[in-house]
Design goal:
It comes from Alicyclobacillus sacchari. The protein is an alpha+beta fold. It contains two helices and three strands.
């Protein structure tokens, strides 16, 4: 099952986060958030949630 770990405000930021998570070895999906034109959900498998959240924190605190 896929779980949303972050909602990015732009497609560019969503792509950057997806690329960095993929580089770290995660399976990643990005989809447009329902009811929002400029928000994008970043999803990873539920089994990778804990580790994915830790890596996401590092990504968000570094310069995208």
């Amino acid at each position: 099952m896929w779980t949303v770990i972050y909602i990015a405000p732009t497609a560019r930021q969503a792509d950057q986060i997806r690329n960095k998570l993929t580089e770290e070895g995660f399976l990643v999906k990005v989809r447009q958030a329902r009811g929002a034109k400029e928000q994008f959900e970043i999803l990873i498998p539920e089994s990778e949630l804990d580790e994915g959240q830790e890596i996401l924190k590092e990504i968000l605190h570094s310069s995208l």
